[in-house]
Amino acid sequence: GARPPRPSAPGHAPEPSATAKAPLEPSATTKAPRTSDIGGVALTGALFARIAAFLPVAMLPSFRRLGLLAHTVVAKSLHRDGALRASLDAHIETRRLGSKRVWVVVRARPSAGAGNCLAIDGGRVAVAPSGPSQGFSFFCDRAFDGSSTQEEVCSYIGERVMPHALNGEHVCLMAYGQTGSGKTHTMFGSLDGGEHRGLAFRAVDTLAALLQGASTGVRLSVDFSFLEVYNDELYDLLDGSKRLPKQRSAEKHVVPVGLTRRRCDAAQMQPQVHAWLREGAATRTVGKTVFNPRSSRSHGVVLLHLCWGPRDGDTRSASRLLSTKAPSGGTETRIYLVDLAGSERAGLYAMDPEQLKEGEAINLSLSALGRVVGALATGKCKHVPYRDSALTWLLKDAVTGTSARVCMVAAVHPNHAQESASTLRYAHQYSALQTSSGSRVSDLTSEVRQQQRRVDGLKRAFESACAGTEHGIAWTPEALSGTVRPSRAARDLVEAHPFLAWTPLHQSKWAVRGQRRDQSGIGRVSRVVDAPEARGASEAADGRLLPEAWGAAPGGEGMDR
User: Fold this and answer.
1) Is the pTM of this model over 0.85?
2) Is 120 left (phi over 0), alpha (psi -120 to 50) or beta?
3) How far is CA 381 from each of CA 397, 420, 524, rounded to the nearest angstrom?
């Protein structure tokens, strides 16, 4: 449904739709000029109308910015042609969704008797006041009441989020809410299939259909992993709940060492991944609490790795998958399906000390995720606390990747006002991650540190060169002006000469140079000739060039030979 106007009640208010930013119908009080001067040429309204008739729909928003006359001509055309206006609205909506990075969907479970505290109208969710707490209003992308079906919720999410996986972008579908609000039902639903199967199974079906129509000439395989975060520890649900270390594998993104990765072909994706989903979901840690007879006591995380490449002998591809590089630099896209454990009030839901410990670990991990989201939403953080919990460490790439598309399903209970308001506030904070600028803060900070270290290294190298500690000649005004003649290493030239040989005596004399303060010891030569030249009258008997003949030497280079 269409978004309502900005409210005055507290909560998150969405931006006005793109179609409302500029009036489509001409104003009755504004008279458009008969001509418009563009580049010194007077253009009439009839000419503008003929030009607008030939333009594609995508060019109309830019064309009407040429002036009041162009804007009026386009507005009249849209007012007369309803199909053209619908096409323009669809184009603007497509552009808006293309730049959208986070979707927040609210779903209320069916009310159990009287006392419904929620009022849902389109994308607005209002929580009635309860006791000392005040009312709360929240605007999201879409809100579903208790009468909604799995098909309606999953179709809305799949149509808007899953197609981005074909462009090499990572996708994350996340369910959050209090215990007993229907998160696991929304994410997994009935494991036996049918109309009650959840978002995870339906997302796989949607993805398989999209890949089937886009994988011409592409060799595609699917890797599957399923793990849970229980008491801030990682466990592999496909390997007998084996405990995993909090260490990254050799891959660029966060993957725990030793995590099971099962592979299947794209043709067998639906039945095989469905079977693996049922296997992992059946082994998750659940328990009976005061509020929920089957409460998830751990965070479930499903990782789908889409790996593609050209078929053997085929270097070209007609698929969009290979026309767009994956963000990680390779040909892989990751799909995250996350079922977060429900937040709990300490001491109200636990039935024994072990459940109290589990609830404490759940709340700590959700609080850490909230701090990470809050730090990224502000865009002013110097440090993002990813390692405060195993959950945030594992989902680092899912919630902060610059190419990630995230959809959070906030499950609320209509009979619990305080818990529902808390869930909506959490979703409000998450909805602030609409741009990728905040998620790049930590990367930019690390980049600044690397550049600073590089500047410091270059500064030390410059100071060393100015002191003359490396090549024997200091970078002084005299050296840079050319009055100090450069020389080369004697050993290199002697070894390359056809008649000379480097002897231990040369080596001992050459070592003396490094012990003199002025760096003018033996071992630097100015030039080497193929045959000895005739000795002049001003040369010493041992072949050294006398000081008074330095300027007259051929080439005028060097100090010792």
Assistant:
1) no
2) beta
3) 17, 29, 55
